[in-house]
Amino acid sequence: xxxxxxxxxxxxxxxxxxxxxxxxxxxxxxxxxxxxxxxxxxxxxxxxxxxxxxxxxxxxxxxxxxxxxxxxxxxxxxxxxxxxxxxxxxxxxx
Amino acid sequence: xxxxxxxxxxxxxxxxxxxxxxxxxxxxxxxxxxxxxxxxxxxxxxxxxxxxxxxxxxxxxxxxxxxxxxxxxxxxxxxxxxxxxxxxxxxxxxxxxxxxxxxxxxxxxxxxxxxxxxxxxxxxxxxxxxxxxxxxxxxxxxxxxxxxxxxxxxxxxxxxxxxxxxxxxxxxxxxxxxxxxxxxxxxxxxxxxxxxxxxxxxxxxxxxxxxxxxxxxxxxxxxxxxxxxxxxxxxxxxxxxxxxxxxxxxxxxxxxxxxxxxxxxxxxxxxxxxxxxxxxxxxxxxxxxxxxxxxxxxxxxxxxxxxxxxxxxxxxxxxxxxxxxxxxxxxxxxxxxxxxxxxxxxxxxxxxxxxxxxxxxxxxxxxxxxxxxxxxxxxxxxxxxxxxxxxxxxxxxxxxxxxxxxxxxxxxxxxxxxxxxxxxxxxxxxxxxxxxxxxxxxxxxxxxxxxxxxxxxxxxxxxxxxxxxxxxxxxxxxxxxxxxx
Lengths: 94, 485
Fold this sequence. Notes:
Structural class of chain B: alpha/beta
Number of strands of chain B: 11
CATH architecture of chain B: Alpha-Beta Complex
Mean pLDDT of chain B: 97
CATH class of chain B: Alpha Beta
Number of domains of chain B: 1
CATH class of the domain at 5-43 in chain A: Mainly Alpha
CATH superfamily of the domain at 5-43 in chain A: Glu-tRNAGln amidotransferase C subunit, N-terminal domain
Distance between the termini of chain B: 16 Å
Oligomer: heterodimer
């Protein structure tokens, strides 16, 4: 086993997902399959290989610091499921 | 011939000659959609009024002599490209009612070129899938055979073009999502070089792999759409400042001096014999056009699926963290605490494949596993990139199948995600290496299913792809087949 049910539960919490017992059971099996398959990469010695995170290395794409048009407050709030016209609202945090 | 059957270039010619108006063409496409879309499910949203208004505007522009390159051409757009004022669902319940306040750069570009946007197309949720069966708003059907998959994730885009609802579409390709459905539906599709086309307003799946590209019926139309959508964009810091050639002028007959590489690793077990025959026939066509054929090896091909299914989910798990119910999209209103709001929103809003990839990605990036999974995959990605660099020293373009098999029956392998992932083996390496790739129709199987030919070239060599594709298309001279719908 590459991954246990308990680990999947922990990862689900990190990813902010609730899984039903049935989902947990199924996902654990499927994830185990996938993670077992990717161990194929261990066949390769990569100790001296530099990782590629991006095909072209772009560093610090700057632009002129000039004011541009942006979304109005109303447009920015429009898709919020709970808002009071001035700000987004969420359940009590503290 | 009905206007909806015209290709982009044919329609432009007729409009230039005053034989057809944008409104007539748009109405013809909308009628076609109204007649067949219940059967093929290519569209999530049809913007009839918006399209007709844009068509009227296009006709006025043409009359005034102020027409853009796509003036009056009706197109569909994959439902993960933001369209101002038009719902953009990404095929997910999470964004069922999301109406973007802005246009993606590519959408803005086709609009300024005069295109008419008919609506938004069905797709795998957040572009995660190879069949478009993971769509919350209808599953597109392969127009060539009932009950067969359209491919994915840009399945609706491919179907809208293949079933003559519109002559072109914009899709996105993270691991084959343009080329594979184009192949399975018998049309042309191109994934440009990473950075060639702006990703601004393209809903992010895997940011180092995603790229927007065209789907259409001819190579000429593909070049025309590339002319319109390519170029650096200040709003996408990963778009590349590179001169954009006039792609349409690269379509000349004759391939003298062109070296076409045949990667032996792409012709191994699991390759359908009918697909193999069609590819070999295409190789012969290119040889007759003057190309030299060379054998090529891409030795790390067998590791591509493993690398991809670590990197793409890792990037996805981070990108999809934004769907928390707070600012836009679905929110579960029953939660009492913030963390429950996040969890319930995400659990109800996402489908199974998206959850699966978020879990894989979160695991691969989590403390203690990062080196073994994400870093390891990123190192092997370097080796894959090296394979291509070496290959393009001895050839200009690679020819191969797009998928090992033609379209398969819907519902197959839905319980075995790894089996579906394996079907992406021939397309994902282009995304990992950032090179351009294209699918051009190569023929049909005995059962009547289309098979595409994949062409790949070095970074920013889309012209080579288009020229090769054009010669292949002309050399094959495939007879136009009639659809049953």
